[in-house]
């Protein structure tokens, strides 16, 4: 049993190394993708294009303008005389937000009277608008002496305390998801081609005539890819730590364990595709689609599962990245142990077991 | 030759939907025998071999290899047979040595035994000194010998070779068959399919398959004896292709076929031969030469197939409403 599995694994590894291009792709591609998407993908908004209309011209008005521009979130795109000038700016997209300072703003502040600033937003991208509004409020709060005294708002004040990601950097949340996404896609593709290649070359027929069992063949084929994918996963996580400030607060051991479970599931899914497909081309396409889309949309990578309709939530249970992400974010961001994500690990084991079983049944049947 | 039975088939049948690929085939093969399966493409040779190797379940009928039933003991059979499929079975991106290690490992060999058998395989494939050569860089003949050697690593007493010499030059083919003779001489059963008459001539016994049915099974001389002495004549004349139809129409000529630029005619009676020359000459074919010849295996093959097409009842002993699909040759 072990001898024959090993024979397959050694042979597969030799073929893998002889095909340097594929090996390098498997090793380096995840890190390259992480670099590209890690920088591109962010919910943090910088350089909001801001137009300012100052009807007041007082020192206080200049202070509030400076507060905006120094915050690092806003870039000035125009200093206008009246609100009418804003329309073309917003229509053409040259401005995303505008600050309007009313006449008498400085005087009111000096007299200790309540006054208002107007903040205009392009709401066509609601997500961005909400984020910008948050920044705008923070800045106003910081310059307003009135707002700074809690009594002005009432007796109860909320003082937010954000755990695990105090500055709410979206990278800390997204990059682990990105790592899961990239690893899923590469591991599925890696093995999706493994069995169907033998069919195309005609060597499958000879393999079937040997005493090799289907399970030995599939495990032997998966093991080398698991080794390569593990290296690639370690590289990606290290990169996330070095470049995107993703911490590792939990145990590296548990991180390795859940990552291996996740990779085994992805590789198993690839093998299952491989046993069903007849050509490498079909296997590649099915592998790409079936790993990319669910992991992107249904894993909680970008869209929170809790806000999906119940039917879609039910579907997410067959997406392995869903479980991995909870465990991964828990380990790296919160430093939690198996007590927090044990069920997720069990789900990954079940997933890997089921796909490998299906692949085995399928290989035996095709005899 | 010892008389130990190694392969037995009894009414072995395989259907694919409506199509009957192998139709009630029965035979027995003994140890030390080179058993040839002769037939055109689609005759059912590969399907039969795949069933015997435990790769395909029979629809009905039974067969056993080395006493193990093909339906129930496929795993036991796989451990004891060598199989060379029609598709090239080695990995071209691995070296000679790596291929042998892998295929040996797939049969459960390891350590000293594996090294010893791999060395043996390299020597019979004639590849000493090329152990580290990638298989894709080997000439076809060497590849074929290496594939055979790889299928013999676990010393199987029975070897199935499915058209092993496809795309190999005649010299390499001859050397390959020398190897087959050696194996049979050592007491192994070699079961080989071919559509080449030359190769069939080198088999101890030949089973003639056509359209899924086994039409004849005997030694090569016995198969040739299906055509009585003096009943086969070779006709040489110009424009042989045009003369064929005329020749077929001559009373007493039961079959005629074109062999290159000559014609072979099977006569109902040896006396008919004398009238052929004058008949053809009368129809405008000059310089006709007619001579009785010894039948080749191909003559016998054509004779047996057309005989089965003309008189299907003799090959259909059971009651059946199925039409025989034999189209006849020529």
Major sheet summary line of chain A: 4 strands, mixed
Number of β-strand runs of chain B: 14
Let me know the average pLDDT of chain B: 86
Helical residue percent of chain B? 25-40%
The CATH class of the largest domain in chain B, by name, is: Alpha Beta
Work out the helix count of chain A: 15
Q: Round the mean pLDDT of chain A to the nearest integer and report it.
A: 86
Question: Characteristics of this structure?
Answer:
heterodimer; A: 367 residues; alpha/beta; abc type-2 transporter like fold; 2 domains; 4-stranded mixed beta sheet; B: 330 residues; Rossmann fold; Alpha-Beta Plaits; 6-stranded mixed beta sheet; 11 helices; 14 strands; disordered C terminus
What's a concise summary of this model?
Chain A has helices at 2-18, 20-40, 59-70, 86-91, 105-111, 126-143, 145-148, 170-201, 203-208, 214-244, 252-276, 280-297, 310-315, 320-334, 338-365; strands at residues 48-54, 74-80, 97-101, 118-121.
Written overview of the protein:
The complex is a heterodimer of chains A (367) and B (330). Chain A has two domains: 237 residues, no CATH class; 105 residues, 3-Layer(aba) Sandwich (abc type-2 transporter like fold). Helix content of chain A is 67%, strand content 6%. Chain A contains 15 helices and four strands. Chain A has a four-stranded mixed beta sheet. The longest helix of chain A has 32 residues. About 2% of the residues of chain A have low confidence. The two termini of chain B are 37 Å apart. In chain B, 45% of the residues are buried. With 330 residues, chain B is of the alpha/beta class. Chain B folds into two domains: 219 residues, P-loop containing nucleotide triphosphate hydrolases (Rossmann fold, 3-Layer(aba) Sandwich); 67 residues, Alpha-Beta Plaits. In chain B, the strands form three sheets. In chain B, strands 6-7-8-3-9-10 form a six-stranded mixed beta sheet, with helices on both faces. In chain B, strands 2-1-4-5 form a four-stranded antiparallel beta sheet, covered by helices on one side. Chains A and B meet through helix 1 and helix 9 of A and helix 2, strand 6 and helix 3 of B.
